[in-house]
């Protein structure tokens, strides 16, 4: 029997379990192969950037963390650092160390969620049960530190909201030890799983020569063997005092991206241990003026943070008034989830669509904000 | 008299069965979707209450609106809701479904979910914890057992009112009208 | 001479009308006439190694009747960030697309077209991107008042203005006993 070469339109999402979040992909398929793909986003648009123009500077902090749900801390970090740069406010050293610890913890939490999603998209349903359960240990730490499991609102301009509770460092170490031990289980269950290897190697390849030009950032870029990491390129906070390497992997396929993330979990664990060792004493917040009368001098800043999915950037413009003039958010998924995804899905199998989406870490809330 | 008694007993039995197998439509409409994996997986394990995910609207019982609804999503949610088979229940999850919450002055999100869909249970908080989610489901089970979870009947009876509200925000209404 | 000064000197020799300055270490600020923009960014990309288009922002300066487009470019090799700024007339905003140089620029331009109403010449697909069936003025413009829009289009839930104790209301509605909180009964310990 000959295969019918008829082009069919397939709508994937927004209500589809294989889609990461709330977005839609319009696929033109012949047989099992995707010929063209078009992404439709905007289902989660809340108009954050408009809302922030109507808020005081202090009121922006609870808003920005809701931009990226799996990993809210880089948003707070970015806004805080942009404000500090415009204002010229110093941050105490202890606060900088605490910020790095929070950022790395949230990176690990985000990678754990990704592991679950990636395995779930391939049909390995034990992994989500394990990783999401283990991620809760980190969320419990966050809850103790900040009062919230998901949205922390912990980092703010001038430092962090409060100091570490008594004995917190020991509890962090205990969780890290446990997670490190669990990684060997994950290796056996997932990263060495024949099904995973078969479905990831050579699938969803990003061309190394094109990667920079297409605006790929974060683990997908490092998975192409290109060593770029904001933590090294433009060190912020105390990353230049810590000992770590940029992790890369050759190949540019789903397997390479997975291995980069897998090794970065170990690296983050080691970074947090260094932070806990080196953390000095002292204050954690450099207080500013009364938040209700808080005016920033006119100016602008672009700051970037390495989130779990790549470069997270904020462009903040102040016109010297009580409220921001413009805050523009550049989420890493903006490029990954729209233009790059459309290119990568061409020629892919329908079953691989959600695997590729997961491996890019597409997160719709930060595309449309 | 005897027939009524029989119907009553049937209702009690079917409601008892319904409340122990609540299949939730897997549609993460907002940021609340991040607390659904912890609720469903090993730590909180919602499946012990009979709560489980379901991929298609036609087999799902519960529509969980996880957070704010932008107008664009509202259109898809209404479509999904109308595809579901009765009896069906709606849970509003998070403060933003109650009064707009964080996004009270946003031009693109609806403020009161119960103007557009018949909500049986609201869970407040931003984000509600997994315990709160499970508590909301248990509340829904109690309402089902006591025959108070009749949002879908309300929707049928007041369809014109709901439609008018929906068409007020959805400018281009190009969806088929379902006919129950 | 460091990277930044070298780049600025090169820019000044090629583009006489561009005003370039160093904002801080690793960040340049370049102001430019809008018609020179495609030539300028392709020059930055091909000759000065700014190969990463970070994003394109738009700022509404309503008082000056101008839109400001900010092109953020980054050079991985030199670790320098360049913000290229052009000003557009607000009553008829029009710019040229830079899609030939970066594919992902198309997405940013589509969003700016939708949110500000800036028309990009040469862009193949400026269809609606995030919003659906939007018939008001583009929402990110400063003269669009989101609160007025909300008041017109959506219903508020009563009870937001008067901050009464909701615990009592809830307990009355469901005939439940008011839960005791820690600060209520300190004496009971």
Automatic annotation (TrEMBL), chain B:
Where are the coiled-coil regions?
Answer: none
The organism's superkingdom is given as Bacteria
Q: Which GO molecular function entries does the Swiss-Prot or TrEMBL record give?
A: 4 iron, 4 sulfur cluster binding; metal ion binding; NADH dehydrogenase (ubiquinone) activity; quinone binding
Q: Which residues form the NADH:ubiquinone oxidoreductase-like 20kDa subunit domain?
A: 30-140
Q: Which SUPFAM superfamilies match?
A: HydA/Nqo6-like
The answer, when asked if Magnesium is one of the entry's keywords, is no
Q: Which UniProt keywords apply?
A: 4Fe-4S, Iron, Iron-sulfur, Metal-binding, NAD, Quinone
Which GO cellular component terms are attached?
A: respiratory chain complex I
Q: Which family does it belong to?
A: Belongs to the complex I 20 kDa subunit family.
Q: What is this protein called?
A: NADH-quinone oxidoreductase subunit B
Q: In which organism is this protein found?
A: Caldithrix abyssi
From TrEMBL, chain C:
Q: Which residues form the NADH:ubiquinone oxidoreductase 30kDa subunit domain?
A: 32-149
Q: What is this protein called?
A: NADH-quinone oxidoreductase subunit C
MF (Gene Ontology) = NADH dehydrogenase (ubiquinone) activity
Pfam families named among the record's database cross-references:
Complex1_30kDa
Could you say which protein family the record assigns here? Belongs to the complex I 30 kDa subunit family.
Q: Which PANTHER family match?
A: NADH DEHYDROGENASE [UBIQUINONE] IRON-SULFUR PROTEIN 3, MITOCHONDRIAL, NADH DEHYDROGENASE UBIQUINONE IRON-SULFUR PROTEIN 3
């Amino acid at each position: 029997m000959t295969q019918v070469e008829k082009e069919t339109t397939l709508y994937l999402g927004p209500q589809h379990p294989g889609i990461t979040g709330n977005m839609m992909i319009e696929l033109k398929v012949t047989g099992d192969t995707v010929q063209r793909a078009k992404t439709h986003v905007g289902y989660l648009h809340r108009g954050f950037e408009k809302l922030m123009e109507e808020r005081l500077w202090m009121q922006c902090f609870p808003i920005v963390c809701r931009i990226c749900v799996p990993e809210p801390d880089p948003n707070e970090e970015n806004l805080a650092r942009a404000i500090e740069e415009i204002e010229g406010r110093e941050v105490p050293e202890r606060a900088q160390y605490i910020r790095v610890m929070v950022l790395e913890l949230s990176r690990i939490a985000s990678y754990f969620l990704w592991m679950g999603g990636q395995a779930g998209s391939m049909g390995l349903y034990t992994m989500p049960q394990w990783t999401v359960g283990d991620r809760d240990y980190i969320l419990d730490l966050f809850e103790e530190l900040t009062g919230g499991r998901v949205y922390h609102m912990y980092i703010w301009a001038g430092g962090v909201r409060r100091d570490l509770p008594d004995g917190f460092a020991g509890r962090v170490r205990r969780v890290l030890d446990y997670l490190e031990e669990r990684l060997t289980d994950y290796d056996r269950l997932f990263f060495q799983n024949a099904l995973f290897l078969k479905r990831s190697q050579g699938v969803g390849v990003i061309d190394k020569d094109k990667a920079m030009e297409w605006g790929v950032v974060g683990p997908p870029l490092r998975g192409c063997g290109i060593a770029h990491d904001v933590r090294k390129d433009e060190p912020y906070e105390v990353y230049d005092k810590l000992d770590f390497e940029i992790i890369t992997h050759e190949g540019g396929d789903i397997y390479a991206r997975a291995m980069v993330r897998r090794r970065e979990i170990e690296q983050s664990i080691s970074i947090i241990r260094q932070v806990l060792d080196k953390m000095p004493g002292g204050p954690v917040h450099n207080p500013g003026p009364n938040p209700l009368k808080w005016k920033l001098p006119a100016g602008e800043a672009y700051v970037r943070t390495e989130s779990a999915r790549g470069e997270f950037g904020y462009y903040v413009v102040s016109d010297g008034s009580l409220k921001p003039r413009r805050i523009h958010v550049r989420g890493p998924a903006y490029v990954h989830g729209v233009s790059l995804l459309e290119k990568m899905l061409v020629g892919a199998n329908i079953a691989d669509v959600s695997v590729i989406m997961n491996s890019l870490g597409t997160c719709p809330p930060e595309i449309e904000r | 008299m005897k027939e009524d008694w029989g119907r009553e007993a049937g209702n009690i039995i079917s409601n008892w069965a319904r409340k122990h197998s609540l299949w939730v439509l897997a549609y993460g409409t907002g940021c609340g979707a991040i607390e659904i994996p912890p609720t469903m997986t090993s730590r909180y394990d919602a499946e012990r209450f009979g709560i489980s995910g379901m991929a298609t609207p036609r087999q799902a019982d519960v529509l969980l609106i996880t957070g704010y609804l932008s107008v664009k999503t509202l259109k898809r949610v209404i479509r999904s809701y109308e595809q579901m088979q009765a009896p069906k229940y709606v849970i509003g999850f998070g403060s933003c479904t109650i009064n707009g919450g964080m996004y009270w002055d946003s031009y693109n999100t609806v403020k009161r979910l119960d103007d557009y869909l018949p909500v049986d249970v609201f869970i407040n908080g931003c984000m509600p914890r997994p315990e709160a989610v499970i508590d909301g489901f248990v509340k829904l089970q109690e309402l089902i057992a006591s025959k108070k979870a009749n949002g879908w009947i309300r929707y049928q009876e007041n369809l014109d009112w709901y439609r008018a509200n929906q068409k007020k925000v959805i400018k281009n209404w190009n969806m088929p009208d379902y006919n129950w | 001479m460091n990277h930044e000064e070298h780049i600025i000197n090169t820019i000044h020799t090629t583009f006489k009308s561009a005003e370039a300055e160093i904002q801080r270490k690793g960040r340049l600020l370049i102001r430019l006439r809008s018609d020179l923009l495609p030539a300028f960014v392709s020059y930055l990309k091909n000759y000065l190694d700014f190969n990463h288009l970070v994003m394109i922002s738009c700022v509404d300066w309503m008082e000056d009747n101008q839109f400001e487009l900010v092109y953020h470019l980054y050079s991985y090799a030199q670790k320098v960030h360049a913000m290229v700024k052009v000003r557009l007339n607000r009553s008829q905003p029009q710019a040229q697309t830079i899609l030939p140089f970066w594919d992902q620029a198309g997405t940013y331009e589509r969003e700016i077209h939708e949110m500000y109403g800036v028309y990009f010449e040469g862009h193949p697909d400026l269809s609606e991107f995030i919003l659906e069936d939007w018939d008001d003025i583009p929402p990110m413009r400063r003269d669009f008042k989101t609160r007025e829009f909300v008041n017109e289009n959506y219903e508020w839930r009563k009870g937001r203005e008067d901050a009464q104790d909701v615990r009592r209301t809830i307990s009355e509605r469901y005939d439940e006993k008011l839960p005791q909180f820690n600060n209520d009964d300190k004496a009971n310990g």
